């Protein structure tokens, strides 16, 4: 965790309650979170066209922000806001709670990705549901410019193809991803 003198998110980019809840989840799920240098947070209260996926450096305090999609079942009217969440297979909804990153992978449908293991009842079917972090055309800046919001996934945390490159390299295995409303 952060050094005693390090301020996490000194510019106030992330909601403080999201950081607090994520830190508590890191303690609760410590046996599955082996790397504590960085954590990843998703703020589903925010509009899909805004930055709402955050990489938080727990040693240096800095935050890097990205855009990420939500599931089409979480936003049936395609308003750009995730409104409902589920862990049910074939719901096409996003799931909230704590995940452990499970390393870089390559899939036949989505290509390069990062695997996730859900750690709570609200997301423990993430592997069965194939909930991953992957690049998608509907999360690219050109799509956002045309549509005014990101497209929707089947529940995955889809990011732009360009953003997937650093995320996939840095997320690795054993780090916390925490999503909440």
**DSSP, total strands:** 8
Widest sheet: strand order? 3-2-1-8-4-5-6-7
Please tell me what the overall shape is: globular
* β-sheet strand percentage: 25-35%
Number of helices: 4
Residues in helices, as a percent range: 10-25%
Taking the alpha carbons of the first and last residues, their distance comes to 24 Å
What letter string, H or E per element, gives the SSE order? Answer: HEEEEEHEHEHE
Q: Mean pLDDT score, rounded? A: 96
Low-pLDDT runs = none
- Mind summarizing the main beta sheet? 8 strands, mixed
Class derived from helix and strand content: alpha+beta
Can you describe this structure?
It is a single chain. The chain has 181 residues and is α+β, with helices and mostly antiparallel strands. The protein has 4 helices and 8 strands. The chain has helices at 16-28, 126-129, 141-147, 161-171; strands at 38-43, 53-57, 63-66, 97-107, 111-118, 132-135, 157-159, 173-180. An 8-stranded mixed beta sheet has the order 3-2-1-8-4-5-6-7. Strand 4 and strand 5 (111-118) form a beta hairpin. The longest helix is centred in the first third of the chain and has 13 residues, at 16-28. It is globular.
Please render the helix and strand layout as text.
Blueprint: H1 16-28, E1 38-43, E2 53-57, E3 63-66, E4 97-107, E5 111-118, H2 126-129, E6 132-135, H3 141-147, E7 157-159, H4 161-171, E8 173-180
């Amino acid at each position: 965790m952060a050094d005693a003198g390090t301020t996490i998110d000194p510019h106030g980019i992330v909601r403080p309650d999201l950081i607090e809840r994520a830190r508590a989840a890191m303690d609760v799920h410590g046996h599955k979170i082996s790397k504590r240098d960085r954590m990843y947070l998703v703020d589903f209260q925010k509009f899909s066209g805004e930055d709402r996926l955050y990489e938080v450096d727990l040693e240096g305090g800095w935050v890097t922000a990205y855009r990420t999609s939500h599931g089409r079942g979480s936003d049936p009217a395609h308003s750009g806001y995730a409104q409902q969440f589920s862990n049910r297979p074939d719901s096409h909804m996003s799931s909230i709670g704590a995940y452990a990153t499970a390393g870089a992978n390559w899939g036949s449908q989505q290509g390069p990705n990062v695997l996730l293991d859900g750690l709570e009842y609200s997301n423990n079917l993430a592997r069965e549901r194939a909930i991953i972090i992957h690049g998608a055309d509907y999360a690219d800046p050109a799509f956002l410019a045309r549509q005014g919001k990101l497209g929707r996934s089947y529940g995955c945390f889809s990011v732009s193809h360009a953003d997937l490159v650093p995320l996939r390299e840095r997320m690795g295995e054993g780090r916390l991803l925490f999503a909440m409303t």
